[in-house]
Amino acid sequence: MRITFIMPADDLTGGNRVVATYARLLQARGHRVQVVCNAPDRPGWRQRLRLLRRGAWQQACRPAGAVPSGHVSRAGVPFHVLERPRPVRAADLPDADVLVASWWETARWMQDMPASKGCKVHLLQGYETWGGGDVRQQVQDTLRLPNCKIAISESLKREIEADLGSLGMFVVPNAVDLQLFDAPPRQRGMPPVVGFIYAGSPVKGSDRCRQAIELARRDLPELRALAFGADLPTADWPLPADCRFVHRPEQAQLAALYAQCDVWLFASRLDSFGLPILEAMACRTPVVGVSVGAAPELLTAETGCLVADGTDAGLAAGIVRLCSQPPEQWFRMSGHAHAKAHAYSWDDATDRLLQVLETLHD
């Protein structure tokens, strides 16, 4: 098949990693893949100041229309970037059998494309209404457009259909790179280490992780912390005390960082899936997480702890429980987490995606 993906930008977000992975694997199976990406906007001066404070100087100084350097540009697939920020038009796209939009705005642009550009597919990686107001209405109107919709988790499908009713969505869950994310069996460390993703934004919940760790230390004063992320910590968005931080680790380092932790914290306020949950589990690290994204589908009593009330105190209690349980119980939980993550690969996800796309093409 000839398959085109259209994207609003190429960066190092989890959603773009998903598109890049599908594009690479579909091409490896002999399909003709093209990714078309909008040119990045130049940040406004207020956003540039925020980026500079977070240490993201490359983003802050990026000129409008600069060539992006994200997951897709590194995937080894045909990749076209528009000359400036604007809507994608039919003339920007090759003729294809399937056209896949990965964001609500690209789905709106897709809807006006002629049939020669392919059957229209909206790959839903989030309920993208967090802009509120007019954006929420535009997103909902877009979701009602007549096209094939594929959600990346059952919980995302339920969340959208609770507002909009049945939309006939398919579900193709995300996976992780099981060659990159793996670790040998190990015992729980002493003293124990809790890890999390740091981001200088409320969305990813690193402030909740800090609070939970500080609460857990009342019962586990020896508890250590490890964090990594693309943003540099700031005084107004600090790390927990005595926390080791790794800034922008290389992809090859990630498994070792996850495997240094005995508990992984997931505290996002908004997340369409939560790939770090699966990445940590694939590296044999049980996860304590809030009920956001795919966490309800991934976290059980065997793989970690789902904190239904989403409170800092609940997260802290989960940390204490996993770090205080008998070592053999933690070892079993570590093994179950690994088994669950490794039971479903990106090849499996690509099989399921192709089943949907081939149905449309036929």
Secondary-structure blueprint:
Layout: E1 2-7, H1 14-28, E2 32-37, H2 45-53, H3 57-60, E3 79-81, E4 98-101, H4 104-111, E5 119-124, H5 133-143, E6 148-151, H6 154-164, E7 170-171, E8 193-197, H7 206-216, E9 224-229, E10 243-247, H8 254-259, E11 263-266, H9 275-282, E12 287-290, H10 295-298, E13 304-307, H11 312-324, H12 327-342, H13 346-361
Helix pairs in contact: 7-11, 9-12
Q: Which features would summarize this protein structure in a list?
A:
six-stranded parallel β-sheet, 362 residues, Rossmann fold, seven-stranded parallel β-sheet, single chain, 2 domains
**Structural class of the secondary structure composition?**
alpha/beta
CA-CA gap between termini = 11 Å
CATH topology of the largest domain: Rossmann fold
What count of structural domains? 2
Overall residue-averaged pLDDT value = 92
- Give the CA-based shape: elongated
Number of E-state strands: 13
How many strands, what sense, and barrel or not for the largest sheet? 7 strands, parallel
Radius of gyration: 21 Å
**Beta-strand share of residues:** 15-25%
Q: How much helix, percentage-wise, in residues?
A: 25-40%
Which strand order do you get reading across the main beta sheet? 3-2-1-4-5-6-7
| Low-confidence regions | 44-48, 50-57
Q: What is the CATH first-level class name of the largest domain?
A: Alpha Beta
Order of helices and strands: EHEHHEEHEHEHEEHEEHEHEHEHHH
> Superfamily at the CATH H level of the largest domain?
Glycogen Phosphorylase B
Name the CATH architecture of the largest domain.
3-Layer(aba) Sandwich
The number of helices is 13
